[in-house]
Every structure is written in C-alpha cells, then in structure tokens.
Amino acid sequence: MLRFISFGSGSSGNCYMLTTPNDGLLIDIGVGLRGLKKDCREYGVNLSQIHHILITHDHADHIKSVGSFSHDYQVPVYATRKVHQGINRNYCITRKLAPEMTRTLETGQTEQVGDFMVTAFHVPHDSSDNVGYFIEAEGTNLCVITDAGQVTDEMKGYIQRARHLVIEANHDVEMLKSGPYPQFLKDRILSGTGHLSNRDCAQVLADNMSDFLQHIWLCHLSEENNHPELARKTVETVLRSYGVIPGVDVQLEVLKRNTPTGPFELG
C-alpha cells in the first residue's frame, strides 16, 4: 500500500512524503527540519525509512532543509541538473548538498528509485528549472504539479494518467488583483511562469481528469490571495458543471499550509 502525507503546502514551506512498506521518499523539503521531525514523531513515522528526496525546483520554500536532511540521514537528492545548480546558488541553503548525494534526473525519462518508478516532466515557473513528478508504486500512481504558471500539453498527459493528483490552486484572481501585493508581484503571479489560479486549476481538471482518477489534493494555496474553502468550492463548481461530483466520482481535498494533512492510503 502506498501512503501519502503532506507536511506543509504553501509559500511557508512544502514537503510531501510517500512510503511503501519497505521504502520512502520526500518530495521537496521546504519546511523546518525540527518541525518535520516533530510531526513525524506524532505520526509514528521513522525518518530512517526515507531513502530518497525529489526536488521540484530551487525556491527556498521547497528546498530550505534539503542539505541538512540529506547530510543528517545520508539520503541522496534527485533533481534536474539546472535545479541542482540553483540549489547550490541559493543563499538560503546554509548546508549545501554533498556531491556524492546528488542524483541527476532527465525530464521525460522514467527511472527506478528504490520501490518507485519516477518520471520528471517540465512545469513552467520562474525558477532555475521546475518539474512535476509522476510516481508509480504498489500498483498505483501519484502525480504532483506545483508552482505552475500554466499547464502544457505534456503536463495534461500526466494528469490524464493520474489515479491520485496533487495540483496547485494558488490564488483567486479577483482577490489577487484587489489585494495589497505590489503590481510587479501581481504580474509575476498571473504570468505564464507564475502560479495557477483556482479557476485555471478547475478547468484543467475538468478537461483532463480521467474516469479512474480517485483523489485530488489542491496544493500551494496563497495565504493572502486565497482561502481553502474558496479554492475547494471553485473547483467543485466547475467539476459539477461537467457532471463530475466531488465526494462521489472523485475525492477533493485541500492540503493545509502549515500543518500536516493525511495520512492517506493510495489504492
């Protein structure tokens, strides 16, 4: 059985865990290591079962603790070459990755990573590079898409194959436009290399979700320009207009920004 936990999802820090009975990986470590250890103790998770780390991109809210975790637990870190270069340049990472702990992924190529078959694919964002992950294990799969300025045809292909999907619903456009952010930041978020809105996320799901998609988690919600219930309701309304009933045809949930969500058993 594949098990999924989110330890934080948002600009304050992102970290997801996937485990099989014999193996485990983290996707991003942008949360504090002390808090992650505390949450794992409360969940009965032994961090020694984490044998791999996947990184989506080099922004601090996704990599803050990656060097420390990799060093303390001697865990290799998988990312594209450009993401590894960005991690090395990022001044927020006080402990850099040891060369022997770096593993390079190529987008579009599936690699065996312990119990997991991992495929990285490009996701548009204003970082050194950014990827989503399509991960297969235990007879099922999980697709993770975060920090996406837009959804490409390549990304749609992975959404169409997903049984379980983590996808960004970062902001409500009207809240963002009328909110306190300076104009340059609003423009960045709304651009094709920024973040996905609730409405865009909903439309992408309606157009591309398969009949066998079981679970959707909305991730990376903005604290200032969104609200969990607003994001969920926006996506639900659009899906219902296409004849898809959340709670009946597919499970729809919102990942918490600063506290764990889960665990979920993925069948």
Please give the share of residues in helix. Answer: 25-40%
Distance between the termini: 7 Å
**DSSP summary, beta strand count:** 14
If helices are DSSP runs of H or I spanning 4 or more residues, what is the number of helices?
9
Radius of gyration: 17 Å
Strand-pairing-aware structural class: alpha/beta
Mean pLDDT: 97
The main pleated sheet reads as: 7 strands, mixed
State the order of secondary-structure elements, H for helix, E for strand.
Answer: EEEHEHHEHEEEEEHEHHHEHEE
Main sheet strand line-up: 6-5-4-3-2-1-14
Q: Indicate the overall shape.
A: globular
Strand content: 25-35%
Low-confidence segments, ≥5 residues, pLDDT <50?
A: none
Kindly describe this structure.
The protein is of the alpha/beta class. It has helices at residues 33-43, 60-63, 66-73, 81-89, 153-161, 173-178, 183-190, 198-208, 228-241; strands at residues 2-8, 15-19, 24-27, 52-54, 77-79, 102-104, 110-113, 116-122, 131-137, 140-145, 164-168, 215-219, 251-254, 261-266. The protein has a 7-stranded mixed β-sheet. β2 and β3 form a beta hairpin. α8 packs parallel to α9 (228-241). The longest helix is centred in the C-terminal third of the chain and has 14 residues, at 228-241.
Any chance you could write out the topology, listing elements then pairs?
Layout: E1 2-8, E2 15-19, E3 24-27, H1 33-43, E4 52-54, H2 60-63, H3 66-73, E5 77-79, H4 81-89, E6 102-104, E7 110-113, E8 116-122, E9 131-137, E10 140-145, H5 153-161, E11 164-168, H6 173-178, H7 183-190, H8 198-208, E12 215-219, H9 228-241, E13 251-254, E14 261-266
Parallel strand pairs: 3-4, 4-5, 5-6, 10-11, 11-12, 12-13
Antiparallel strand pairs: 1-2, 1-14, 2-3, 7-8, 8-9, 9-10
